[in-house]
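Per reviewer request, we include the raw input and output of the structure prediction for the construct analysed in the revised manuscript.
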Amino acid sequence: MSQLFSPFQIGGLTLANRIIIAPMCQYSAEDGQTTDWHTIHLGSLSHSGAGLLIIEATAVEPRGRISAQDVGLWNDATEAALARTLKAVRTHSQMPIAIQLAHAGRKASVAQPWHGGGQLGLDAGGWETVAPSPVAFDGHARQPRALSTEDIATLCDQFVDAARRSVRLGFAAIELHAAHGYLMHQFLSPLSNRREDDFGGSLENRMRFPLMAFEAVKAVVPAGYPVGVRVSATDWVPGGWDLAQTIAFSQALKARGADFIHVSSGGNSGAQQIPLGPNYQVPFARAVKQATGLPTIAVGLITEAEQAEAIIGTGDADLVGIARGILYDPRWPWHAAAALGASVKVPNQYLRSQPRQFKTLFG
């Protein structure tokens, strides 16, 4: 039996298989509200056969968006838009859908990638960004404003509000975004956190805000409701955030009731030196899993069915995240199941597409 297509439990949520669709920003919202594009995009992915779909980074306040076209969940209008999108998708799919709650911090206020992705001027649709310290992200001309302790408390409240809305919308799980150089990661890394108060300096202090936000979110969701965190295991820069600190952070999250850790890397510095290759981030997931015992999601250049099967089979991770690969091949789990002799659930409308040589592919 394929290990990739075996069921798995995260908190009170049972997944049909170990394939996770990782969050992917679409830069196609209007005033934080999902649009018809999201209905089409998520609707397609919801028929892929994956075990869980995590929607894109969703900002907890307007200035926390990466671009002005990012999805948000900070008021009734953004909640209502997501409700409409989810209703359309759920009408035709039983796939569990989770949400990633995020704040871009100093990496906010940029153009859509297909328009260059550069920082927008205040006279060109941009806005003042915030961060742990007034240290600009590489290539950004404008420095962020350092958050006060009162601002940090307000941010925790905003994560809580978005979490309550997420539960009300029926999302199956919440993932907090502490990776890829966004706000929580900015607090964690000494490259971006130069504070000298209780939120900077020592590892304990740099972890304080992400742990506060996690605890606050965990306190307002129902018992058994899965809450996890996406982390960058390393900045890939000497003197930056690294695996040892990631393990310490993951252990602290476990002590506070975390249900899973989604292990990525990089994104906080233009000086990063990443040795790209298949499975290049998998050893980080394995190290976090071994040190914490928490369910881990491995991600990064996982493109082949046998490759994903080996990651699960050898215990490197409990789940695998597919992102760009599933945009390229929206039926990646179907094809993986065919290659591994497993089965996937598909809509009745697609049953007759089962290839003759895979007589049990669709159950």
